[in-house]
Amino acid sequence: MSNLKLNLSKTARFEVFSIPDDKNVEMPTTPKRIETGSAPASRPTKTPSTASDRAKDIAPVTLNYVGADEEEVASTKPGDSATVDAKKEQVVDPWSVESEGAIDYEKLIQQFGTQRLDKNIIERFEKLTGKKAHRFLRRGIFFSHRDLSMILDLYEKGKKFYLYTGRGPSSEALHLGHTIPFHFTKWLQDVFDCPLVIQLTDDEKFLFKQELQLEECNRLAYENAKDIIACGFDLKKTFIFTNLDYIHHMYPTILKIQKLTTYNQARAIFGFTGSDNIGKSAFPAVQACPSFSQAFKIPLRGEKNMPCLIPCAIDQDAYFRMTRDVAPRLQCNKPALVHSKFFPPLQGRGGKMSGSAANSAVFLTDTPKQIKDKINKHAFSGGQDTLEKQRALGANLDVDVSYEWLTFFMEDDDRLAEIGRDYASGAMLTGDVKKELIGVLQTMVADHQVRRKEVTDDVVKAYMAVRPLEF
Ligand code: TYM
Fold first, then answer.
1. Whether the predicted model's global pTM rises above the 0.90 cut
2. pLDDT tens-digit profile of 196-205?
3. Which domains, ranges and CATH numbers included, belong to the chain?
4. What's the 313 CA to ligand 1 centre distance in angstroms?
């Protein structure tokens, strides 16, 4: 503990580097240091480390990832108030999502330099595909993108593109948060009728989770593949792979990406420190690689430069800022992205659901009773603390977790609006809203479990076979 204090008191933070998205600008070779008196906000990682790791791994780097269009990011400069005031800093990266209050997604759009997924693009989407927008689009859950309009242009012209998403297999079961990008990707695959590749990063979890063995990560990848398949992806158009098993097909592309990315860039984007293992620094090229169709000679039938769209939550964007920076130098298309907000933990909004806190998450393996108990006991309520006050004042929907979870999973817009109205006015009580949510989730999870039971080892093998996809 005294070590910890000592290190923090010496904290210096690095200035923010930007990767201008549309220009190939040399990165600074050495980060400039800004001496600060205060310690940075703590950053609980998605990957809990050992005590000795933690002592070594006090990463005094506060990074605002700045991506694309410079105009959009002009307000976020090194040393501006967001960077200086450590207490108010929200942290969103592939390993931690942390914020004192609700996550400020507008600010992420500014910091990362992405584009807002606005009404116009959703209307165009509906017009071109002839399909009603998915509830995640209608309700602003997928809120940001990079070059989604370019994908719509391709669709309009009848040109081909593919989808790419993934999962880091670190636990036996997926939680509801993990299902958001997969449900959305399944819908996109149906609407666009296009091929899809799904990367399972067993290598990433081995390198980033001190306590996990390699064989275990590979086993978990196969387990997680069953949950992913149960989301309903079309076998003829979907290729699922673990990095350990498919790496030799990707290796030439990975090497090219690695050669074009300096250690300083990787450190600036991902915050690696001297005590991190060297595998971590090499890994981002592995997650970048499937953005390029040349890595899928067989599944994508030799298409050398087929455009790619990546659905994911905004935490993964750092990998793809790096990818988009490298793409033109590989003479490849930059991948397009569509980003979701985080499905929040039961305790409230300032983060994302994490599998390491069992009572903050609902898992796809939970029983109806577990779902009911977790929601009744742990879902943060925006309702008043007495019946009389609730009837008189109504609930604060902005902080109520049960209501927010309903916005993710209740399909019926009219019923959702009715619940919102009645709960906010005091006509409904927290218990009523929790009951609605429990019903929705019990049905959804039970249906998933039925579908998952049908996913045998042979079915997994079929999705993972290296074969030409139909498109
Ligand atoms: P992983 O396993 O952490 O997460 C899998 C996917 O789920 C998203 N996600 C969430 N979405 C909404 N709410 C949450 N609470 C929540 N938690 C996680 C993640 O953004 C991700 O899309 N390195 C990746 C695996 C990966 C990948 C990819 C992901 C490899 N290639 C391409 C997306 C796209 C990982 O560990 O994801």
1. no
2. 999 999 999 9
3. 1-102 (no CATH), 114-343 (3.40.50.620), 358-453 (1.10.240.10)
4. 6
